[in-house]
Prior knowledge:
54% of the residues lie in helices and 11% in strands. By secondary structure, it is α/β, with parallel strands linked by helices. It folds into three domains: 5-99, YqgF/RNase H-like domain (Nucleotidyltransferase, domain 5, 2-Layer Sandwich), CATH 3.30.420.140; 113-207; 209-332, no CATH class. A five-stranded mixed sheet has the order 3-2-1-4-5. A two-stranded antiparallel ribbon has the order 6-7. The longest helix has 34 residues, at 174-207. The model has no long low-confidence stretch (mean pLDDT 89).
Amino acid sequence: MNITTIGIDLAKSVFQLHGIDSFGKVLIKKQIKRAQMAEYFVNLKPCLIGMQACGSAHYWARKLESFGHTVKLMPPQYVKPYVKTNKNDAADAEAICEAVTRPNMHFVPIKSTEQQAILSLHRMRQGYVKARTAQANQIRGLLAEFGLEIPQGIGYISKRVPDILEDASNELPGILRIEIQSLLEHLNELNTRADNCKKKILAWHKQSETSKKLEAIPGIGPLTATALIASIGEAKNFKNGRQVAAWIGLVPRQHSSGGKQNLLGISKRGDIYLRTLLIHGARSVIYRSGQKENPTDRQSWLNQLTQRRNKNVAAVALANKNARIVWAILHHNREYQDNHKMLVAA
């Protein structure tokens, strides 16, 4: 068998394979167990392997590449149009096998173990922050039922709740005081875990010269810089800065027809976490830009933009601009310059 292309539908225990030769003839159409994957592909001649970018895809991509195969990952939404019949494992594997051979297909860069580790720390911290917010809101809501109001802001929980629990004049029952104290301890534990993840991320940031370059961009801090480095990887994976902005979902969504261009709001595609970090960083820059007496060219552009448009629109525009600057710094391996102007040949 001269297999040239294989599509793999990944799962937890059982994987579906669909292999073809150079003429498109189906040579493989079977299921194999997880424990048989390495043994099967290590004895197979090097070929093109396509997989969807889903859970464990990056691990298997690195594993199969070590055996000499060429592995390409694709977004699931780009594979779906190639499913011809009802959805099942065999149909998905066939669709993956066909999609990976398309010349205009978009592929996902394979992440290294270090990239996945940093992104995992970001995900864990994000989960702790989300749980911390939910826990604080639960404490605030339970106390509000007894007429005990706490101002907005998570910092007021740690300041006000101990005093409320010690105050015997309020109507808070004794059985509830014990449980509220337990919830407060849980909140403090979530705070500690989120801070520990952040410290590890900052430690990695201090060791990465590339991440430090991105930190110099106004609106990008250590968290955003490390998340961008771990997600983008090498700048050569993108043709230009606009592709990075589109990949994050910061470009307009189109609904055009008949030669008439109709641009809507941003597409919101890609990683919502990266998009959130960039937009929040841009909001911080907009807040500070009006307070400086001698603005730079970048700040003047931003001030003029905020006068014409809503601040939320300006924040997205600045986030888009920062995403393009990130690509330029990574692609050309340069330092950030605030008043940088491109030299155009006469």
